[in-house]
Specification:
The protein is of the alpha/beta class. The protein has helices at about 10, 45-55, 75-85, 100-110, 135-145; strands spanning about 15, 30, 65-70, 95, 125, 150-155, 160-165. The strands form two sheets. A four-stranded mixed β-sheet has the order 1-5-6-7, with helices on one face. β6 and β7 form a beta hairpin.
Length: about 170
């Protein structure tokens, strides 16, 4: 008699959620305001406003921009706000902070867009390994989004999971 192999993982009621699919495809760039500083020390309003008027902002179309100042200088808050006012029309997303802060904002945006109701009473596996790195804060954010609706949440691969949460029986 022949033994038949049965793929129990494929037959299970598990739903796999791969956070790699939520990585925004747009380019990430850093805008360093130090390039606008007079002698690398201070921002001159007149010069900065002229730069804002003449700079080609279309180069940021669809991009994700992290705004920083890598120089040890005092930059007035309004300067960052003025940059934001120009990036608004072109960039997909912009943040004050480094690339990590930008990535966190992009994941928060993507996770906020998830309709949690589609996972109501689901047995979820949050995929743990992949080809692209997914930051830890994305895993924490997805837990916050799905804990109120999921029946159970596991981490890893459907064939080898780490149980994280199981809704208590009523």
């Amino acid at each position: 008699m022949e033994d038949i192999l049965i793929n129990r993982v494929a037959q299970s009621a598990l739903t796999t959620l791969n956070l790699e699919e939520f990585i925004h495809p747009g380019e990430r760039v850093v805008y360093d305001i130090k390039e606008n500083l007079f002698h690398g020390l201070m921002l001159r309003e007149k010069d900065f406003r002229e730069f804002i008027k003449t700079h080609d902002w279309t180069q940021y179309a669809g991009q994700n921009v992290a705004i920083i100042c890598s120089a040890d200088a005092i930059v007035p808050t309004w300067a960052y706000m003025l940059l934001a006012s120009k990036l608004q029309s072109y960039a997909h997303r912009y943040v004050f902070g480094n690339l990590e802060a930008l990535e966190q904002e992009l994941f928060q945006e993507a996770i906020a867009g998830i309709d949690a109701e589609q996972y109501r009473d689901a047995k979820l596996v949050i995929k743990g390994c992949g080809e692209k790195p997914v930051p830890t804060y994305a895993y924490v954010a997805i837990m916050q989004k799905l804990l109120p609706v999921a029946a159970s949440i596991m981490y890893g691969e459907p064939c080898s999971t780490v149980p994280l949460y199981k809704r208590p029986k009523a």
